[in-house]
Amino acid sequence: MKVNNILPHRSESLPRPFVIVGEGYGDVCFVDELLKLHKINNCSVGCHNRQTERKEDSKGQMDDYLAGLAFAKTRKESVQLSGILIIVDADDDPEEKFKMAADLLEGNGFPKPTKPFVIEVHGDFKVAVFLHPGKDRTGTLEHILLEATLKDKPNLGNCVEEFAKCTGVVPIAKENEQAKMKMSSLVGACCTENPWASDSMLWHSKGNPVPIGSECFKPLADLIKELCA
Amino acid sequence: MINSLAIDNFRCFKSVTLQDVKRFNIVTGTNGSGKTALLEALFIAAGASAELYIRANAWRGRDTINVSQLMLASLFDDFFHQFDSQAGLRIKFRDSHGDEREVTVTVGKSDVINLPFDKSSESSISRDLKFIWKTPKGTIESNVEVGPDGLKIPQPSDTYPAVFINQFTAGTAKDTADRWSTIARKNLEGPIVDSVRKIFPQVTGLTVLTSGGIGGIHATVRGVNGKIPLGSVSAGISKVVAILVSIAWASQGLVLIDEVENGLYYKTLPEMWKEISHFALEHKTQIFATTHSREFLEAIMPTVDNNAKDYSLLHLEKTNGEARITPFQGRQFAGAIQSGFEVR
User: Fold this and answer.
1) Are strands A43-46 and A18-22 parallel, antiparallel or unpaired?
2) pLDDT number for residue A88
3) Does the N-terminal or the C-terminal CB of chain A have fewer CB atoms within 10 Å?
4) Contact (Cβ atoms closer than 8 angstroms) between residue A179 and residue A139
C-alpha cells in the first residue's frame, strides 16, 4: 500500500497527531522520504499550496499554512494534534529565522519554542524548530543534500566545484545560490531520464544521487523520531 | 453591531455562545450543519413577533399550515433542540453599545382544549406558547393563539433592523422596492446605482416604477430601449440589488444572506463582495453570509486581506445532532484558504 505522509491540497482535517511544516514542497518531499525510511506513520508533512498562495514571502506563506493547521485541528474528523515541527532554511541568519518560526507558531495559537533543534513539551503538546542545514550553521536544504551526495560520491565533488567556477557561480553568487546550483548540476547529471528534476521530484527520479539514509540527515531524523515518540 | 450571541435549545443548537462577533461573518459547514438555523436565530431574536417563525419555516418548505389539523405545540416543536419544548429556548445578543436583546420561547401547560376545526381533526390538549422579547426599551410578549379563524399572532414592534435574504426572499420585488423607496426618500439611492453599475456594467440605471399599483425596481440596460423589471433582467442582478438595498435599509442592523453565491456568475463575485463590503462599512450594517462555494471564498480574499479585523469565519459542525460553531478571525481565515486548506 502506498504510504502518503503528505497533507493533500484542500485538506479538511488532520489524519495524524504530529505535523511537520516545511517552507516549500522540496522540504516536504525530503521529509516524506525520511518518514518512510524510518517507518514513522503517525506524522504528516505539508507546506503552503502554490496554486492558491498569493503571498510571495516565505514568512507569509508559513503563517498562512499554520493558520490552516489551526483551523483543520478543530474539525471533528481530525485526530488530536499533539505536536508540530517547523523546518526552515537558516539562510544567512539562523537566529532571525528561528525567531520568525517561533513567532508564527505563537501567532497561530501554538506554543512558542524557546530554542531550535530541541523538542519542547508544553502540556500535552510538543513543538520544535529545525534549521537547515543544521546546528550552528547558515544555509539551506540544498547544503545538506549536497553534503550527503558528495559524501556518498566523493569523486563528483571536484567536478562540481570546477563546473561552478567555470560558470562563474563561484565566487560571485551567494552561498545559498551556490549550493542550489551545485545540487541542480548534480541532479541534472545523475537523473538522466529527468535531468530537470526538482528537489521534490528527484526522490522518484532514476539515478537520484541523494542517499536518504545518509548520516548527514541523522540530526533531523532523530528530532522527528523524538517528536513522534 | 452585534458582538456576542448566545443560543440555547434552538433547532440544532443545544447551547452555543459566540464572542467577539465581527462585522462580516462568513458561515460555512456541510448541509444540515446549522448554517441557516444560525441566521434564523439572529432573525428571530432581531424581530418581535412569533410570525417570524412561521416565515422561517415557510422558507424551509413548510409554506402551508393547515390550522384545522393543527396541534399548536407540534407546529413549533422543531423550534426546539431535539424537540425538547419543555426546556424552552433562548437567543440573546449584545451589541457594541452594550444593549442586549433576548428572545425566550416557553411552552406552558394549559388545561385549554383545542376544539377541532373540521371533522377530520381530533381535539387535543393545547399548550401556551409564549414568545418574550426583552429589548433595551422593555419587554414584548407575542403569544400564539389559535382561534376559529386560525393562528393569531401580533404584529411586530420594536425590532432590530434585520433582513433575511435567501432564494425565496431575494427575488421579492415588492420588499426590495419598498426598501428602495425608503432609501430614495432620503436621496441615498445614488450609491446603490453606482455600485450596481460597477458590478454589472450593462445596467446603467435603476428606478422604482409601479404597475397595477405594485411597485418594483426597473433597470435601464445598455442597448435596450425602455426600462425592464429587474427580475426580468437577471435573477443574479436582482439578488445583488436586494442585498445592497437591504444593507442601506438595515443601517446599523443585520443582513443575513443564505447561500450568498447562488445565482451569480463566478467572475462577478469579487466585485460584488467589494461593493457589499464597502456598503456595509458605510452603513455600519453587519453581515452574516452562508456559503458552500470555494470560488466565493477565494473571491473575497482581497477584501478580507484589507479588512482582516472585520472578518470572521464561523464554521459549523454537527455531532450527535448537536451543532457547534468554531470561529476563526479574519487573518487566520484568510490564511487557511490561501494555504490550501478546506474551510467549507
Assistant:
1) parallel
2) 96
3) N
4) yes
Q: Which residues of A touch B335 (CB under 8 A)?
A: 63-68, 108
**pLDDT value, residue B273:** 96
- Residue A55 backbone phi and psi in degrees, to 5: -85, 140
Which residues, 6 or more positions from A216, have their beta carbon under 8 angstroms from its beta carbon? Answer: A144, A147, A148, A151
Cβ-Cβ contacts under 8 Å, A11 against chain B: 340-342
**Chain A closest CA to B152's CA: distance in Å?**
43
Residue B42 · residue B52 · CB < 8 Å:
no
Residue of chain B whose alpha carbon sits nearest to that of A48: B339
> Cis (ω within 30 of 0) for the bond into A171?
yes
Helix axes B235-249, B269-283, angle to 10 degrees: 20
Contact B143, B132 (CB under 8 A): no
Q: What is the Cα–Cα distance from B145 to B220, expressed in whole angstroms? A: 47
How many Cβ atoms from other residues are within 10 Å of residue B248's Cβ?
24
Of A55, A61, A67, the CB nearest to B336: A67
Nearest C-alpha neighbor of B144 from the set B169, B116, B112, B102 = B112
Nearest to A68 among B298, B326, B340 (CB): B340
ipTM associated with this complex: 0.77
Splitting chain B (344 residues) into consecutive groups of 10 residues, what average pLDDT does each group show? 95 94 96 94 83 68 49 67 85 92 79 46 54 88 66 71 84 82 92 95 92 86 91 91 95 94 92 95 96 93 91 94 92 86 85
**Alpha helices per DSSP H over B62-215:** 72-76, 173-185, 190-199
* Nearest Cβ partner for A10 among B319, B326, B341: B341
Helix (H) or strand (E) holding B59: helix B51-59
At position B331, the amino acid (one-letter code) is R
Residue B340 and residue A9: Cβ atoms within 8 Å?
Answer: yes
Interface contact B301-A70, CB threshold 8 A: no
Give chain A's end-to-end CA distance (angstroms, integer): 23
**CA B129/CA B77 separation, integer angstroms:** 11
Helix (H, G, I), strand (E, B) or coil at A174: coil
A192 CB-near residues (< 8 Å, 6+ apart): A206, A207
Structure-block grid coordinates of residue A162? 570546477
Q: Which cell numbers hold the place of B79?
A: 423550534
* CA B53 – CA B142 distance, rounded (Å): 12
pLDDT score, position A10: 81
CB B120 within 8 A of CB B66: no
Helical ranges in chain A per DSSP H: 25-37, 58-72, 94-107, 141-152, 155-167, 169-172, 175-190, 218-228
The pLDDT score that the predictor gives to residue B247 is: 96
Residue A52 distance to chain B (closest CA, Å): 5
Hey, is the C-beta of B343 within 8 angstroms of any chain A C-beta? yes
